[in-house]
Every structure is written in C-alpha cells, then in structure tokens.
Amino acid sequence: MSLMSEVGQKAFNLGVPLAIHMDVTYRCNERCVHCYLDHDDHGEMTTAEIKDVLDQLAEAGVFFLTLSGGEVFMRRDFFEIVEHARRLMFSVKIKTNAVMIHEKEARRIRELGVDTIQISVYSHRPEVHDAITKLPHSFERTIKAIRFLREQGLRVTIANVLMTVNSSDHSGVQELAAALGAQYTLDPTITPMMDGDTSVLSLRIPGEELTEVFRNPALVGSQEEFCAPPKPPSEEDLEGYSCSAGHSFCYISPYGDVFPCVQFPLPTGNIRQQKFLDIWNLSPQMKEVRSIQAKDLTVCSSCSHVSSCSRCPGLAYMEGNMRGPSTADCEKSFYRTGVPTANMLRQGLSKPRPTSGNSAPLIQIRPIAVPA
Amino acid sequence: MPENCIYIARSSAIAARALAGEMMVMNSADSTFFTLNEVATAIFQAADGHTPLREIVRDRVCEQFDVDPEQAQADAEQFVAELSGHGILLVSNQPLASESPR
After folding, report:
1. Confidence at residue A287, expressed as pLDDT on a 0 to 100 scale
2. Residue A183 is inside which H or E element, if any?
3. Cα–Cα distance for residue pair A186/A192, rounded to 1 Å
4. DSSP character for A256?
5. Backbone angles phi, psi at B90, to 5 degrees
C-alpha cells in the first residue's frame, strides 16, 4: 500500500474529511452539451463566506482541496480565494476549462503553489471540442493556456470525458496530452442533470464502444487484469464500503450546500446555517451514507461483481435508492468483464438495455462537419 | 555552519495538515508526499524561521518526548537536511522570514 493510500485509509477509518471538492460558482463561459449544472447564479457564497468555510475546513483536517465550477475564473475573486486556501496550507487542485488563463494567470497559479490544474479537453479536433463546449475557438484558447501553464512548470491533467460524439478521439487526445507534457485521464461517465433530467444520458457511449475502451492497454494498462472476471466476494468485501463519499470526502456547492459527493445530490446541511463540522459529524443523512456496507446493498450484495464494481452510491441515489444498483456501473462491469450483473439477471437480461429515454443522436452538434 | 545557528522555515510551496497528531506534507513543485511522526511534526510546526533549531529541539522535543538531547539534536539535523533537500524546509544560519504564498 502506498503512503498516500495509507493516509487515505487512516482518514477514512477516523472519519476525517481529508478531501473536499468545492464548486465556487456554477456560472460558466462554456455550455457543454453533457453538463449537469444550472449555470444561473442563485446566490453564490461571497468572498468572505468562502474564506470562512476554508478556515473551517482547515480546522476540520481537510488536506486536499479541489476548487471547481462552473468555470472558476468567472469569479473575479478567484485568486483571492486560492491565496487564502494556500495560506491555510491546503493542497489545491483547480478544475477549469482554462480559456481565461493567459501568461499572467499561469504565473500567478505557479506563485501560489497550486498542485495540479485539471483541464477538460474533449477532442484533438478543434471543431469537435468547440461543438461540445459551444464556445467558438475554445479549443485554441484552452490549448494555449495549457502551454502557458506548462511553461511555468505546472502539473496539468487533461480530463477527457468520453461520449457518443467524441468516442473515437481518445487516442488523439492522449497523444495531444503527451505532446503538451500533460497527464491524461479518461472518464466515460455522463451524469444526469442536477434537476433529475436524464436526457443527457443519451450521450453515454454505447456498450460495444465501452468494451473497446476497456480493452485498450493504453488506457487501462493490463487488459487481462482489468477485464478479469470478478472473484467471489470475501467476508471482508461484504463488510466494505462503496467509496469515500461521506467518509473522508464531501462536496460543497457555491450556495453552501454540503453533499456526500459532487455526484451524490443528497442534501446534508448548509454551511450558511451550520458549522461545517456539525454537518459532517451530526447530519443524519451523512451518517446514513456512512453506515451502508456492501452487505446492505439490496441487489448488489448478491452480485458477483460486488468486490470489483465501481458502483457509485450517488448515481444509485439518482436512480431512486442509494442502496440499490447504479445502472451505469452495472454496464461498465458487464462490458469490462462480459459477466452479467445481478441487476441485469433479475431483469432477465443477458446484456444491458440500450440507454433508455432519449436515445437520439446528439442533435446539438449535428450541424458541425466532423472530419472522418 | 555551527549547529546552534541553524534556523528553519517552512517553504511556501508546500501543503501540510495534521492527521491524528502526524503531519502530512506535500511539495507542490514535485508532489513528493511525506508523513511526519510526532517528534518531526513538533519540529516542523516550530519552524518559524527565527527560532534556532537547537532551541526547538530543547523546548519542543526534549521537553515533551523522552529522548537523549544529543541524539535528538543529531536526529533533528538529519531530518532538517532531508526535508530541505526536498524543498519542504528552508535552512539558513540567519533568521528567515517564514514564507507564505504570495
């Protein structure tokens, strides 16, 4: 076990919120077709409120702080927030589309000792990227910003969300990342909108293409290991928990709402009304999330994948039951290993149903001519 | 430099937080990650740039932990050399301003 994993496990066991994801705004200068956020400002926390939250988080033991959005640079006080966070000695990661980062901003980010900047790049083809962000020239501006950041010696991670319209571009983005000296990470997860609207799920890449991704050694390492059939769960597996949500991780919205995870919209309290630690320690919802072990899961406890599945309790919650299966993860487990999940078997399925609801192609980018 | 003139300060490039009495430290320049035991944590927390290392060892280590003063001083110097090699601590024979991110 690496030192970092040991620390993570220690925080998990002690119930210390080691890592926090905080969205400082939902406003954005891009309008990505798959985005789950409402970009209107419904009363963001002020600079003073955010600084007070950061003070509380430092006191609570938070070490890893991810600042995200929306687009973080839509806030004019963003550098003031980062400066305060770094004075409190957080390890800061920034998630951004980077289109507002120029040489001056890149230098400031370096001066502030930010650990990593994660930037979304959807394709190596400008027209595909721009069609997804719906911001003309966003590809050009983002790539320019990555160069500025790299010139400052900063660590940049390119996050490549994979969906129907860019599913064949991951190799190109991976090569682009290598050329820019950036790390590369791929995510095939498309999340329902925060208001429960699931129409964006039609952007999820179909199963056959997911299989292709999972069999690509450049993306997953050892295919044999990654795609191995699940091992029968041990007693220890059944005593285990899904993930760190609510255990050593949580999410804070721009309005001060606290959730177990950015992908788990179960309200547990608001930081404008309560102290962070009171929510973290005393919220009944947080305690409930924390109590759920694999053996308590309604369907998944009897699933052969239970010990290796990436089941997301937040996605399960959005499907109606935080103890139930998350269909997206059932699909991933199936397409990764070829072994049907308990959730599929109880529905008499030998393979997942095609994405339900709006399964039309992504009409938003149809008018854009995408070269082969 | 004479050992009684060593001053230490925390670099502005680091992130740090105590977890159950032990300090986690990460250098943002190269992402090296350390955890410090209780004694090392005491020294790290006292690294204000203007308290000599010998005084830190006397007041923060020997006072609070059952250790031989000479051994403690030697261990502290080794620890300081290691962390300064990773850019976590700044070392000087003159008092230092403790850095904070600009």
Report:
1. 96
2. strand A183-187
3. 18
4. S
5. -100, 140
